Inverse folding.
């Protein structure tokens, strides 16, 4: 092998470290995005970081050769038990994962050039900024939910937090940029229960989000254009919409065997 040529190729290779929040609804879209990225770019390798438990869950799933897994120890409660004490699970995610992820980063080759991290993993932005590695903040829910958290201070300013939803849940929120008039009871569940118990951590994540280098939203632009445009007008970093991240590659393989082009829904 021509070593100098191999080293030159590695120098040109973009190495993305993908760090999903440890939950199925976050890992699935992150993995689907990584697969799409690796299948459309020949100069990218993606390392998806998961816990050892999650590696056991998804390690055998099909993926492009350019996508690889790397694991950290199980420093957080098991996926099977997290519902029993969700606030404790959140606290572990926020405080126990950063150190082993940073240690893993030191071992990866070629050198990581980009970190793609779930928005809820604020410490990934801290790692990237410290090491001068660009960080993309990856949001897996609707843009409207993103906007509510980003503008959470407006709820307090308008005397809509804290409140008793049983008494005032039908009141309308009509002051959040990009958000249509919405009843308080229809907003994310941060008024009570587990949502209220973990609210401070969620808001901490959004305080770090603006320190990333760009944001990826998993929605169609035309579906939530008003909310996306409002965020672009406010935030000082690029925002990209990549569409809902369903498993396109697996669905394409199945449909090519079982369906004809005439069977596709009109909206496609």
């Amino acid at each position: 092998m021509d070593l100098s040529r191999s080293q030159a190729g590695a120098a040109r290779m973009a190495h993305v470290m993908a760090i999903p929040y440890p939950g199925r609804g976050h890992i699935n879209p992150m993995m689907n995005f990584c697969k799409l990225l690796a299948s459309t770019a020949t100069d990218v390798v993606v390392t998806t970081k998961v816990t050892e438990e999650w590696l056991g869950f998804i390690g055998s799933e099909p993926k492009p050769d350019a996508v690889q897994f790397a694991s950290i120890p199980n420093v957080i409660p098991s996926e099977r038990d997290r519902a029993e004490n969700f606030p404790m699970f959140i606290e572990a995610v926020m405080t126990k994962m950063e150190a082993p992820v940073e240690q893993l980063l030191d071992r990866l080759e070629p050198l990581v050039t980009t970190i793609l991290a779930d928005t809820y993993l604020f410490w990934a932005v801290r790692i990237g900024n410290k090491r001068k590695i660009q960080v993309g903040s990856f949001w897996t829910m609707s843009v409207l939910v993103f906007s509510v958290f980003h503008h959470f201070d407006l709820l307090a300013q308008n005397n809509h937090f804290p409140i008793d939803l049983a008494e005032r849940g039908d009141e309308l929120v009509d002051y959040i940029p990009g958000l249509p008039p919405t009843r308080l009871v229809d907003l994310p569940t941060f008024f009570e229960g587990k949502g209220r118990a973990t609210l401070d951590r969620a808001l901490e994540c959004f305080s770090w989000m603006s320190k990333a280098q760009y944001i990826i939203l998993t929605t169609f632009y035309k579906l939530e254009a008003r909310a996306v445009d409002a965020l672009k007008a406010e935030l000082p970093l690029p925002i990209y919409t990549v569409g809902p991240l369903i498993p396109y590659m697996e669905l394409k393989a199945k449909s090519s065997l079982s369906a004809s082009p005439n069977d596709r829904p009109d909206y496609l």
